[in-house]
Amino acid sequence: MGAEGMKYSLVSRELIADCIETMNEAYSADASITLSGCDKTIPASLIPLARNNNIGITLYGGTILPGRFKNKDLNIVSIFEAVGKFSSGKISAKEFTEIEKNACPGCGACGGMYTANTMASALEALGMSIPGSASHPAVDRQNKVSSKKMQDCRDTVSALLNLLKKRIRVRDIMTRDAFENAIAVVLALGGSTNAVLHLLSLAYEAEVKLTIDDFNKIGEKIPLIGNFSPFGEYMMEHLDNIGGVPMVMKMLLNSGLIHGDCLTVTGKTVSENLKNAPSLRSGQNIISSLEKPFAPPMHHIIILHGNLASEGAVLKLSGKAMKKHTGPARIFEKEEDALDAIMNGKIKKGDVIVIRYEGPKGGPGMREMLGVTAAIVGEGLGDSVALLTDGRFSGATHGLMAGHVAPEAANGGPIAAVKNGDKIRFDIPKRRWACEYRAGNIRRGRG
Asked: What would you report as the CA-atom Rg of the chain, rounded to the nearest whole angstrom?
């Protein structure tokens, strides 16, 4: 994160998928259990099964438990935001060290509703993993494999044998309606923007027609009911304690917001799986009711269009009130330069940070930018500074951040023409943005 090695992160999704496909097809496997741990491995574990319409199921290794410091839960983003707080003098070196030491207490994927837990939830909603398995921690407080995760292993094997017996293939499960269920759960929980590119990729492999604008269409009906880090208070473990993803899906199903007739890896439909799922508990603030959500529909992940992104961009609003933001562009050709400017106090309230040539081609590799976004928040600029990039964000990112700008700068996208001081205008209620820049300055590539 924040280094050249991040250019390999998204690319590794394809490498992992190809490796799984190679072994699965080379040995002519009758059926497969694919294992995943964090971020890219989760979609990568399903891409080859969808590509070849195999018989298979995925199993997620589980979330990490929260760390603790000063009676507060910690997670991976606590460290990155502490960098900004330390540089601005808000915490001491000793406090910074204690946060670093305590943020990650054991095994498991990052504990908030970041990319790993977002995608684990999405795949459960998609019907491709055992109900309830997405929220089960990897280990217990003694750092031993949790009993729930051990049971997931047993249930996954049983389900695979049943799929084999009934000859149920992946594309029988991964239908258009199933993808709509997955998107609905991601939006309801407040998931990562990376879900957009991963679900679109999975739909492509499954030969399901899904576009980036479908996220807005589905989002028009789905309120934000999850109160999870990075923008909220809780971790995946807390969701597990009150009923996990099945509880959330039951709420959505009872309100007619997801499809109940979709087939799943249990051999049963979504409705059948959720028949005995727990109901929403009272007296907790982890999941709200649909009637009194943390934010109304279209207040989490939003697809924007405008003269900087004719093919769209992905905005993570994280439940904040829709607003307009206009400010001068501060141009950076790579992530490291933007981080240096933030850490040295060169970014001011009202600025719009533009980081370009960080897309799939321009990076290359479309790096995540948690270091930059967390530093903005840590410096106290999270509500007053906007950021846009043709790169992407970590699931731990929050604030007025728009990424995945397409076409990207390296392909001659308009973002390449923006100059320092040009006014960039976000009009979130209208789901558009604009830049007042001089045309004719677009350049292709950098050399």
From this structure: 21
Q: Which residues contact 278 (CB under 8 A, 6 or more apart)?
A: 242, 243, 246, 247, 250
Distance CA 74, CA 387 (A): 25
Pairing of strands 309-316, 301-306: antiparallel
C-alpha span between 252 and 111 (Å, rounded): 23
CA distance linking residue 129 with residue 127, whole number of Å: 6
Task: Please give, one letter per residue, the 3-state secondary structure of 195-231.
Answer: HHHHHHHHHHHCCCCCCCCHHHHHHCCCCECECECCC
Q: Is the dihedral of CA 364, 37, 229, 220 positive or negative?
A: positive
Please name the amino acid found at residue 46.
Answer: L
* 243: Cβ contacts below 8 Å, ≥ 6 apart: 277, 278, 279, 280, 281
State how far the Cα of 9 lies from the Cα of 15, in Å rounded to an integer.
Answer: 10
Q: Helix (H) and strand (E) counts for the chain?
A: 15, 12
| Selection from 199, 217, 175 nearest residue 121 by Cα | 199
What is the H or E stretch that residue 305 is in?
Answer: strand 301-306
pLDDT of residue 399: 73
Which residues, 6 or more positions from 295, have their beta carbon under 8 angstroms from its beta carbon? Answer: 223, 224, 317, 319, 320
Helices (H), 310-365: 335-343
pTM, two decimal places: 0.92
Three-state DSSP at 117 gives helix
- Helix, coil or strand: residue 353: strand
Nearest to 11 by CA among 360, 393, 382, 320: 360
Ramachandran assignment for 401, one of left (phi > 0), alpha (psi -120 to 50 degrees), beta (any other): beta
What pLDDT shows up at residue 433?
A: 59
Mean pLDDT by 10 residues, the chain (447 residues): 88 96 96 94 97 98 93 85 85 94 92 95 98 96 92 98 98 98 98 96 98 96 95 94 98 98 98 97 97 94 90 86 84 94 92 96 92 85 89 79 94 94 85 56 39
Fill in the amino acid letter for 204: Y
Instruction: Please give the Cα distance from 447 to 443 (Å, whole number).
Output: 10
Which segments of 41-140 does DSSP mark as H helices, in order? 41-52, 76-87, 93-102, 115-126
Active-site annotation, residues: 394
Is 225 in contact with 288 (CB distance < 8 Å)? yes
